[in-house]
Design goal:
This protein starts with a helix and ends in a 9-residue tail after the last helix. By secondary structure, it is an alpha+beta fold. The radius of gyration is 19 Å and the shape is globular.
Length: 212
């Protein structure tokens, strides 16, 4: 499936075929493709918790407003934005840039300083925004990749973040931006037409922001 077709045909699916496993090799391929998502300074401040075990999905469902699709989907991915991604990945990113010729050795210290200045301290709002924006790019890339591989998805923000952190061992300073359910469309399900989408005039202005 080409990119434009995947974008046009991707839908948020509520009804997944239960009992359809997502094999390791398919999950790993999907996660790897999504890892090509754009990322500020290539810092990749995301973590993913893949939940496939039926008992763990049952527990996750309790944290996600009892939504049935959490258990029916082949897998549910907990998308975690990590504000510590700067410190965790910066040195490896700088090494890669230097080795590949993106940056001369003498520019390394200055680039590191620029990153620290741009994204602020670990607990700053700027750092949290950085982590969330990049993780959202990863999640969207993953959903399009899943569609291209013949799977359906549903991004979910109906959940208790504290409950998920407690049950799945996620540190308090991380940010759960969404859950992404993945699987096959339930047999016999007929999708309604795509609902309301705004016209371009409702949200696009040129050269300056304009309010209606």
């Amino acid at each position: 499936m080409d990119t434009i077709q995947a974008i046009k045909e991707r839908r948020a699916i509520n009804f997944f075929e239960p009992g359809k496993p997502l094999p390791d090799h398919v999950l790993n391929e999907l996660l790897s493709i999504a890892n090509l998502a754009p990322s500020s300074f290539d810092l990749q401040p995301w973590k993913v918790v893949a939940v496939r075990d039926p008992e763990r999905k049952k527990k996750l469902r309790e944290c996600a407003m009892n939504q049935q699709k959490v258990e029916e989907a082949s897998a549910v991915l907990i998308m975690v934005a990590d504000p510590d991604g700067v410190e965790e990945n910066k040195d490896r990113m700088l090494e890669s840039w230097q080795n590949l010729g993106y940056m001369k050795p003498e520019a390394r210290k200055g680039t590191a300083g620029m990153i620290d200045s741009l994204y602020g301290t670990r607990d700053s709002l700027t750092r949290k925004y950085f982590a969330v924006k990049n993780t959202a790019l990863y999640a969207m890339t993953l959903m399009l990749a899943a569609k291209g591989m013949g799977y359906e998805t549903h991004p979910m923000d109906g959940f208790d973040e504290g409950c998920i952190k407690k049950e799945f061992g996620i540190p308090e300073n991380k940010i759960i931006i969404m859950l992404v359910a993945i699987g096959k469309l339930k047999e016999g399900t007929v999708l309604l037409p795509r609902p309301f989408r705004r016209e371009l005039d409702d949200f696009v202005s040129h050269e300056n922001y304009s309010r209606k």
